[in-house]
Recover the amino acids of this structure.
C-alpha cells in the first residue's frame, strides 16, 4: 500500500506511522529521518539542505521533494510506503502526484488524523523533557513524574522546550492550517481521504486506522 499520513502537530503521526508501517510491512518514510540521513551521510542533497539550515533559512521544496523521491525509489519501497511529513504543502502534493504518475502507480489512501485543537495544545504544552536525556519525556497530565520537575529515570531536571510553549504551539497550528491542511482538500478531490479520530489510546487509534485501510 502507498499511504500518506497527515494531521496537526501533536496528533501522534510519528507514533501511528511506526505502528502502521510495521503492521503493513512497508517502510515508514519520515521527512525528519530523510533530512537527518542525508545530512549525516553527506549526500549532495544533505549538503544543500544543511547550507540552508545553517543560514537559518527554510529548505526549498525542490530539495525536500528530491529527497522523498530518492527514498521512494529504494528497493524496499517498491511494494509500498507510508509517508509521514511529506507532502507538507500543495506544491509537494502535486510533485508527489507527478512522481507516482510517472511510475504508473497511485496512492491507496490519505489518513487524516483528527484531533481537536485544544487537545493538541494540551498534549504538546504539557510535555516536560529531561535535561540529561531528551528521550525521557513526561507530561503534566498524562505521564506525571513521581516528583514534580524531576525525571523518574535519572533524577535530571524536567523542563518545557521553547517549541512546546503554548504560544509557539498555536503558531505551529496556524502554519499547519495555512500550508498543510489544504492538501486534504487536494486529496479529497481524488477520493483518497480517510479521517481517523485520533483521541484515545495509541493501539485504539491504530486499530481504527487499520480498519479504515481495510475498507479503502
Amino acid at each position: 500500500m502507498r499511504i500518506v499520513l497527515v494531521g496537526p502537530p501533536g496528533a501522534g503521526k510519528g507514533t501511528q506511522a511506526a505502528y502502521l508501517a510495521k503492521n503493513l510491512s512497508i517502510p515508514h518514510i519520515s521527512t525528519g529521518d530523510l533530512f537527518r540521513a542525508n545530512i549525516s551521510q553527506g549526500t549532495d542533497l544533505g549538503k544543500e539542505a544543511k547550507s540552508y539550515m545553517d543560514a537559518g533559512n527554510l529548505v526549498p521544496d525542490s530539495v525536500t521533494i528530491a529527497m522523498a523521491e530518492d527514498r521512494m525509489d529504494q528497493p524496499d519501497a517498491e511494494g509500498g510506503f507510508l509517508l509521514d511529513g511529506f507532502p507538507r504543502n500543495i506544491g509537494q502534493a502535486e510533485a508527489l502526484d507527478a512522481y507516482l504518475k510517472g511510475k504508473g502507480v497511485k496512492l491507496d489512501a490519505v489518513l487524516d488524523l483528527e484531533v481537536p485543537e485544544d487537545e493538541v495544545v494540551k498534549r504538546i504544552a504539557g510535555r516536560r523533557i529531561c535535561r540529561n536525556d531528551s528521550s525521557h519525556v513526561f507530561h503534566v497530565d498524562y505521564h506525571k513524574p513521581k516528583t514534580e520537575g524531576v525525571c523518574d529515570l535519572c533524577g535530571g531536571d524536567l523542563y518545557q522546550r521553547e517549541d512546546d510553549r503554548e504560544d509557539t504551539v498555536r503558531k505551529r497550528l496556524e502554519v499547519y492550517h495555512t500550508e498543510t491542511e489544504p492538501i486534504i482538500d487536494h486529496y479529497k478531490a481524488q477520493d483518497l481521504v480517510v479521517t481517523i479520530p485520533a483521541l484515545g489510546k495509541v493501539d485504539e487509534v491504530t486499530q481504527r486506522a487499520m480498519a479504515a485501510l481495510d475498507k479503502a
The chain is about 50% helix and 15% strand. The mean pLDDT is 94. The radius of gyration is 18 Å.
